[in-house]
Amino acid sequence: MNILFTSAGRRTYIIHYFQQALQGNGKVYASNSIYTYTLSQADGYTISPEIYNPDYIPFLIEYCKKQQITAIIPLFDIDLPVLAKNYDLFAQEGITLVVSDYPVTQICNDKWATYQFLLKAGLTPPPTFLTLPDTINALNTDSITFPLIVKPRWGMGSIGIYSVNNLEELNILYSKLKHDIWNTALRFESAADKEECIIIQQHIEGQEYGIEILNDLDCNYTATFSKKKIAMRSGETDIAETVDPTPFIPIAQTISSNLRHRAMLDVDCFISPSGQIIVLEMNCRFGGQYPFTHNAGVNVPRQLIQWLSGGETNQSLLTQQCGILSCKEINPVIF
Fold it and tell me: How high is the pLDDT of residue 335?
């Protein structure tokens, strides 16, 4: 089995995890629109057109045929809906896309859609608003209070996230963010609604946690993994400790059954001082918190390979040890 990771970026660890999981019975390939060190760690790589280039999908299909690649796993939010739209084209060539269906990618990539989904599922997201007038009205009625969080509706990592403490900051940073969005990759998805491309949320006090919800390739719930986030950097978890997932399982099962995502779903949440679990965001892909799960004895790459090969679920691959404290390390390399 040969596997291609698209938009591989800096996720070198995912390449290594899958190389180990294949145990020599296949190769791991990577693609990206610019060269990164991660590409050099794959068994083969290619520089692809940018995601929104009309040649992107034909290029990937031809590369997969040339390298006898039978599965693709995307690692970047913007990549997900583009690939999902073309699921059948890849299937016709015998290539399995490990990506959620297009409507699921739209819910996860659009934070306003995420908020509406969570409310409909009976879960608790932070109070969220799409316009300044609605936000100011909520402030005037004490429905929310400062500080607030202003961020892109279609956002990634920590790009353009501001904490605001008063009305003046709210107006200034809202305007600044609206300008900044069009100078980053966020402009592509934000073009879907230029006038409402920012959301405003109540700042949440409490301990932040990350949970991962694993569905099988038929979108059925399989497992929940959880960790307490101790340090963050650029929107990604830097230090975390795995914790008992039991308190999060009912929420995970609710999300799984309502969303019907495929494979990994990366979820950010808080536990408030009162003990309430507040769900913040969802990403339907391998996220930056997976290495902490892997260090705690879980092997999702091996399980995905078994599923792709027609095998069954192996719970021994999906049992997380609790109390495993890990940190990410940056090592400079010459390449």
Answer: 65
Residue 195 pLDDT > 90: no
Average pLDDT of 29-41? 97
| Over residues 284-303, mean pLDDT | 96
Kindly give, in sequence order, each residue whose CB lies less than 8 Å from that of residue 80, ignoring residues fewer than 6 positions away.
Answer: 74, 99, 100, 105, 108, 109, 284, 285
Cα 144 to Cα 319: distance, rounded to the nearest angstrom: 40
Q: Is 153 helix (H, G, I), strand (E, B) or coil?
A: coil
Which residues have a Cβ under 8 Å from the Cβ of 74 and sit 6 or more positions away? 5, 6, 7, 80, 83, 97, 98, 99, 285
| pLDDT of 157 higher than 80 | no
Q: What is the pLDDT of residue 10?
A: 92
Share of the chain above pLDDT 90, in %: 88
Q: Which two three-digit tokens encode residue 242?
A: 């795995």
Contacts of range 28-32, beta carbons closer than 8 Å, 24 or more positions apart: 28/2, 28/3, 29/2, 29/3, 29/4, 29/5, 29/63, 29/67, 29/69, 30/4, 30/5, 30/6, 31/4, 31/5, 31/6, 31/7, 31/60, 31/63, 32/6, 32/7, 32/8
DSSP assignment string, 214-248: EE-TTS-EEEEEEEEEEEEETTEEEEEEE---GGG
Cα of 25 vs its chain's centroid, Å:
28
Per-position b or e across 154-189, b if 16+ CB within 10 A of its CB: bbbeebbebebeeeebbeebbeebbebbeeebbeeb
